Amino acid sequence: MAKTEKQTKANQANGKLGGRPKGRKNNKTIEREKELEYIQSRVVAAKQELISAQIHLGTGVSYLYKIESGKGKTRKPKLVKSKGEIEKYLAGDCKGDPDNYYFITTDKPESRSIDSLLDRTVGKAQQSVDVTSKGESLTPLLVKIIGKDE
What we know:
43% of the residues lie in helices and 17% in strands. It is α+β, with helices and mostly antiparallel strands. It has a domain at 27-121. The strands form 2 sheets. Strands 1, 2, 3 and 4 form a 4-stranded antiparallel sheet that branches. Strands 5-6 form a two-stranded antiparallel ribbon. The two termini are 49 Å apart. The mean pLDDT is 82.
């Protein structure tokens, strides 16, 4: 749609009055930066716990369960969360307890957690990109520029 000269001049005049000042960020950009800053502060505050959790995932995790039985009733296994009870079990002090049965389960290590830890500390392993066509080298392209003189 063609604009008249009068419309074009009015648009140019209005453009000079409003709009975002030069150098100012969009409101969405400012909001995104605030959210990122909030997330970063939370991660920094919990970095010890996060690193420990990632190390546990990388080495495999073990869980101690206890089945309490008494008066002929057997109950479902409960995850033992008490540090003192775990230490007592590991020291061998729970073996003579006829009312409780303990067992340990383990989860295998997560390879992505191991890779992430090593990449952040040792450095990322070198990766190569195959620039071939089905395993064969590409032939070089020869470009010849022909000028007026030839």
